[in-house]
Design goal:
Layout (H helix, E strand, L loop, with lengths): L26 H22 L8 H5 L14 H11 L3 H12 L3 H19 L5 E2 L2 E5 L2 E2 L25 H6 L1
Antiparallel strand pairs: 1-2, 2-3
Length: 173
């Protein structure tokens, strides 16, 4: 039995957009994760301002972790591992720790730009990848965010009119 993301507590014609079985986060927890991403981005940039490094480094390096997409040349499974390693916080945290302990402001700044990139990605809805598809992330299928929903169906309990007319579905995106 597949559980819906939301319990039906509104009109009978309102249904959830996605099933919980796809491994993605929606609703309130998704909003919290995006708020957390905004704090990560702002905090990383605020900390960067204390390093004394030039600000041109931020736009020059902010997209560098996205080069990890090249891992997908080896297949979706290996690509997801490489991409996730570049888009999770442990590696930049180690870099920040090394920069801090060794009094190397450039190393510290590089780790902070890396963290800012992760915060920016998550704020925009790009999450950690699953091994089955580049578009399947823990925050949803990002390629489908701009696709229109299917019209309601009496046979399918997982469709709705559109994200704009369905508060729950708009919030889940």
């Amino acid at each position: 039995m597949t559980a819906n993301r939301f319990q039906a507590d509104g009109p009978a014609d309102h249904v959830a957009c996605q099933s919980a079985s796809d491994g993605t986060v929606s609703g309130g927890p998704r909003a919290w994760l995006r708020a957390e991403a905004a704090v990560l981005l702002a905090g990383a940039l605020a900390a960067y301002s204390t390093t004394g490094q030039p600000w041109w480094l931020v736009p020059a390096l902010i997209l560098l972790p996205d080069l990890a997409w090249a891992g997908y040349l080896g297949g979706t499974r290996i690509g997801a591992v490489i991409y996730n390693a570049a888009h999770a916080t442990p590696l930049p945290a180690v870099l920040i720790g090394l920069g801090w302990c060794q009094h190397r402001p450039l190393v510290l700044a590089l780790g902070l730009v890396w963290l800012a990139h992760i915060g920016l990605d998550r704020l925009q809805g790009y999450g950690l990848k699953y091994g089955n598809s580049f578009q399947h992330t823990h925050l949803g299928y990002w390629a489908e965010e701009r696709k229109p929903h299917n019209p309601p169906s009496t046979t399918s309990p997982t469709s709705c009119w559109s994200p704009s007319s369905c508060f729950r579905c708009a919030f889940a995106r």
